[in-house]
TrEMBL record:
Co-factor(s): Mg(2+)
Keyword Magnesium: yes
GO biological process: DNA protection
The protein's name: Oxidized purine nucleoside triphosphate hydrolase
Reaction(s) catalysed by this chain's protein: 8-oxo-dATP + H2O = 8-oxo-dAMP + diphosphate + H(+); O(6)-methyl-dGTP + H2O = O(6)-methyl-dGMP + diphosphate + H(+); N(6)-methyl-dATP + H2O = N(6)-methyl-dAMP + diphosphate + H(+); 8-oxo-dGTP + H2O = 8-oxo-dGMP + diphosphate + H(+)
Amino acid sequence: MKRASLETSFPRSLAKSATSSPLDWSSYRPDDTAVLCFLRKPGWLLLIRKKRGLGAGKINGPGGKTEPGETPRDTAIRETREEVGLIPSEPRHQGALRFAFADGYRLEVHIFTATSWEGSLCETDEALPFWCPQEEIPYTEMWEDDILWLPAVLEGKSVEGEMFLRGDSLEFWDLRCSDDHQVG
Ligand SMILES: Nc1[nH]c(=O)nc2c1ncn2[C@H]1C[C@H](O)[C@@H](COP(=O)(O)OP(=O)(O)OP(=O)(O)O)O1
């Protein structure tokens, strides 16, 4: 696999936190697998204000946990339809992030983007969707980690990494990215 060096992929300050990791990631096993699916049209990104579940109140992409028998891509399509009424065509996998929370919960999140879809955009019990100019992404209302990796995804890169959160605070991260969409 071709992988761009960290220095060219992420500014050094974003690639890795200064703190040492609070856990041994080699034995990491997620409790749940989830997805995020960012729909894109030129200059715009579909975001949601999440109404319930993990991260309720925050802004994020549509997404949620994988159900038994689903691939992450299946989940991306189902969750996007359930949350905002749009069915992405051929969502593109752009990596996976391994989250560990201080309470012990571990969630692996696969990242997808899509540039075409069917259906009609609608608000649901789970999400209030809105098109956001790509230059005005409201990172201060999102998970703290998003500003580290979402810009690389929007540049078309694939990302992988490990992140430790205490509540809403990101305490440790280690991120890599590549240009060839084969990470994760
Ligand atoms: N640190 C983080 N940064 C981020 O960008 N998204 C995160 C995150 N931690 C969790 N998420 C997102 C990813 C995924 O889409 C979502 C999982 O949330 P949910 O628990 O709401 O899943 P579901 O929609 O399946 O809900 P339930 O049916 O209530 O279990 O949270």
